[in-house]
Design goal:
The chain has 9 helices and no strands. By secondary structure, it is mainly alpha-helical. The longest helix has 30 residues. It is globular, with a radius of gyration of 32 Å.
Length: 226
Amino acid sequence: MTLAINAALLATGPTPGAAAGTHGFLSPTGVEIAFLLVGLVTFGAALVTVTTRQLVHAALWLVVTLGGLAVEYLLLTAEFIAWVQVLIYVGSVVVLLLFGLMLTRAPIGRSPDADSGNRWAALTVAAAAAVALVWVVVDAFRTTWIDLDGPASGSTQATGSSLFQNWVLPFEALSVLLLAALVGAIVLSRKAKADSSSPPMNAPADTESSRTVTESSGSSEQEGAR
């Protein structure tokens, strides 16, 4: 009986757990090597983004960082999240930042007023946050393996089905929240425009005083001519 069970197991092939156990740090696959290389490039671009003194250069390096994240999502078979990353963050947010810099004519170089000098405190907080995030991600996905031969879990079809079947209420609540934020922004901008276009309270008094000064100067000129 035992020999028959073993023969059946060998005929069906290794289980997903056994196949996952054959991979490790000493035998990485091509996808894992590409993931590490793209991660290093993304990390370097992120460091340049926060350390450069030119805002335009920071925005351009941010494009490289967000593009690297999109490639990482593609390597993790999350194609929907990857295209959302490209369309929204790279195609909208960064372009909005660049247009804001060009249209507002903001100072491009380093601003001494914006530098508080607390570099060591900022470095400590950033390092602590990075360690906490890495620990949470590693602890959450330590034994998780992606079965490339199984059903797609990060495709557009799977994500859309999960979104509109299991997460309809949070999706609609987020839509209402974004709509409320849009209406609030329109109301605030119209109020600010109305306040700037309204004449000041002392405008009639100033007009009357200027008219009096003009009449007195005209009468003095007439008397001088006589």
